[in-house]
Amino acid sequence: xxxxxxxxxxxxxxxxxxxxxxxxxxxxxxxxxxxxxxxxxxxxxxxxxxxxxxxxxxxxxxxxxxxxxxxxxxxxxxxxxxxxxxxxxxxxxxxxxxxxxxxxxxxxxxxxxxxxxxxxxxxxxxxxxxxxxxxxxxxxxxxxxxxxxxxxxxxxxxxxxxxxxxxxxxxxxxxxxxxxxxxxxxxxxxxxxxxxxxxxxxxxxxxxxxxxxxxxxxxxxxxxxxxxxxxxxxxxxxxxxxxxxxxxxxxxxxxxxxxxxxxxxxxxxxxxxxxxxxxxxxxxxxxxxxxxxxxxxxxxxxxxxxxxxxxxxxxxxxxxxxxxxxxxxxxxxxxxxxxxxxxxxxxxxxxxxxxxxxxxxxxxxx
Amino acid sequence: xxxxxxxxxxxxxxxxxxxxxxxxxxxxxxxxxxxxxxxxxxxxxxxxxxxxxxxxxxxxxxxxxxxxxxxxxxxxxxxxxxxxxxxxxxxxxxxxxxxxxxxxxxxxxxxxxxxxxxxxxxxxxxxxxxxxxxxxxxxxxxxxxxxxxxxxxxxxxxxxxxxxxxxxxxxxxxxxxxxxxxxxxxxxxxxxxxxxxxxxxxxxxxxxxxxxxxxxxxxxxxxxxxxxxxxxxxxxxxxxxxxxxxxxxxxxxxxxxxxxxxxxxxxxxxxxxxxxxxxxxxxxxxxxxxxxxxxxxxxxxxxxxxxxxxxxxxxxxxxxxxxxxxxxxxxxxxxxxxxxxxxxxxxxxxxxxxxxxxxxxxxxxxxxxxxxxxxxxxxxxxxxxxxxxxxxxxxxxxxxxxxxxxxxxxxxxxxxxxxxxxxxxxxxxxxxxxxxxxxxxxxxxxxxxxxxxxxxxxxxxxxxxxxxxxxxxxxxxxxxxxxxxxxxxxxxxxxxxxxxxxxxxxxxxxxxxxxxxxxxxxxxxxxxxxxxxxxxxxxxxxxxxxxxxxxxxxxxxxxxxxxxxxxxxxxxxxxxxxxxxxxxxxxxxxxxxxxxxxxxxxxxxxxxxxxxxxxxxxxxxxxxxxxxxxxxxxxxxxxxxxxxxxxxxxxxxxxxxxxxxxxxxxxxxxxxxxxxxxxxxxxxxxxxxxxxxxxxxxxxxxxxxxxxxxxxxxxxxxxxxxxx
Lengths: 366, 724
What we know:
The complex is a heterodimer. Chain A has 13 helices and 17 strands.
């Protein structure tokens, strides 16, 4: 990913965080840590990159409350820990770091979520990647099936060639957490597009119906909100092979966010959107129109759904008239639907009728 | 009442005698037994130890045997039949004093109910300490003769206490009856728990056993104090509480020969001067025979009572539980985070002395926070379990705006909601009930106002407590932040960068930016004193100057033993110190010790301040409330002086030789009147010897004022720190 930073650069930028705190205390002021505001109010569209990145709003976390003070202390411990790993050429998972923090006394983490957040904070503040920090995520990547050939470097350091249709079982090829060129090489393909699918049930249905072959596509299971490596893999394949990405998800506010994180970048990772987002992605379905057009069984929107939809109306990533229309329509109808609702018309309906019709709208005929 | 119809009378009136339902009957029976035991023990200055056992009788539905046993004096053999065998026995209907027995018809009612519902007799075992053996007998009632029918009378060695030890003195009653017992709010268990709260000097054991001999409910509430309630004195009726009917009856039945002595001896609060004025106003001859006064004359006397200035009735005939003991009783009965109690000064309504006490428990974990608070009502130390809604005590609770004190109160009225208990106790020589059932106290504006004021005070305590807890938690966080986290940040950042650690003092001031109060009350076992420490820490960049006020238990027995800072008494229970200016980063300390309280009598203080800038952990003193309390105290003090002057006037009336001085004989006579209550309980000669400043052998008016006032000021508890 990007230009890999040198050990010295990484340590220098981490020490900068500690220096900010120390300088403040020297001046007789509470120590602080300055970082970009991580909310939808502070993401801006970067025309050059075609993705959303953090804007200029900054938040100062200062040690005037117990909670923030603890955060600062934890950040210092994490910095110390990362520098030690860099020195000794080790790496660890976020979860391992969470357990290692048991020994940090006052700086220990309360929950794993806290340690994840601090790692992210440091990435953002130092403009380094998690990989620079030698920290690995716990989350495993998604599954993929389709006629593409890759090489993965295995534990022995050998390159292993895998065709993701012929060399895998029904569960497909499992993406590793690191999908950078030093780990994965893209070798060959014979597909027309990449299809990202939200739910496991629908992924399995398309696999069973042989949709990857009949529609000449690579199927990727997103597993809900997709992991970094999933989004990175989609981006690499799409850019390297110049293939369009079609996102097939439920019709609810959370699925819209999944799409936005693939296409424009997620709010939490907006500092590295240009590495993770695929701006050319298309939201295939299920759309709000589909519920009506296909007369799909639907559920009522919960108050939480409505709240999420309303938040999306003011999210810059959904500012296009098309999205505004879809979201407004959902709010008006008060309905949402799952991918599986298509089974109303039989198990093959999705592959025989729905997807071909939808893909045709975007010029992909089967 | 015709004696022949005594059982008929019982049958007809059982609803107000407390025997209307099977559930209530068992509570009433237990109540009569417990009241008797407590009264007997207190009269003989014995710390009560009472056991109540209920046994369901196998194969008989709704049949229960109630067994009560106490460690009281026992009943001499010749009185047993009278006590248990005739209704309305005893003198409680004729004296005016604060007794439990104002309610109910006594233990004879239990014997009667037992006999009427089961046809069986009640077994009584009594032992008095003089005799070697206990006397046991079965008692029934001859309802025609209103007399006892005794059978199986015998002496026994087999009278044992709950530990199986022979009883030295005590009484045991075993009465079978038709009854149902249950648990919950209206149950014997609840009744006994409530009784134990207002009788902190009693140990009460309770056990209920079902027909299979299995224990279904059992508890022991141990006494929390060895101090028996003050013995209650009986007083004569006060003219302000007398109506025309009663007046006529008193006149008719009087054995006095002259109206002057009738007025002086029948009533309280009528000194010589007032007697003369009443007779003059009413135009009744002082030599007139009371029984010959006309109804018109009686009415004129009644009118005169309202124009002539009378002495108030004495209030030392009341026996309040006292707030510290209520606190202990409450804390024992329920687990909670916070207890506040208030005992108001005695007051008078319609010639009846009364006194109000309230308690508030907050933070109970055993009851839901969204339900109505638990209300515990008591009259003369007796729990009131029925008719809560129509009771004056409840109405007073409903009239307080609880929202302001942090309890929910939908619509701004009614019983508040929350995980709390509110206790109200009314002590009076004459508790007026709404009906003969004696379960709800009747409306009375003075009593209502006293309760409301007391509740507002505990409400204020609650509010301060909650504010303080919240502030304490916040302060605790800040302390953790600057004392632990900040030094850790400094150390870690410095070692990462290889730099020197910065000076954190200015950083700490910036972060805290407030003045903090920490306080604690600890019991010093060695010295047997309570030590209170208050620390005011200035974490701001400016010097701060404050007066600090702290709450302490001001009682007759408690007094300061250490208090280097001096200070002065602000109002009752609040002391005030002026602190030297505290520099930024510095702290000011107040330390004092109080002697004369029992361990656990005092656990925490409330700290207030005067001065600019908030103190976290202390509240700004509400000058309005202070002023209100001060006004009340001034009124009370004025009243006391006025009363004193009235008493002196009255006493000087005994100066029969018009010498201007009272000699020993004259003083002795005077001491039979109101002045006697104000003097130490010594002989007239001793009083003269002590207060005769000019050595004349007699007391003049000035000396007499001295004699009464030295005593009065001693009672207000100002003590040696009274004046700065």
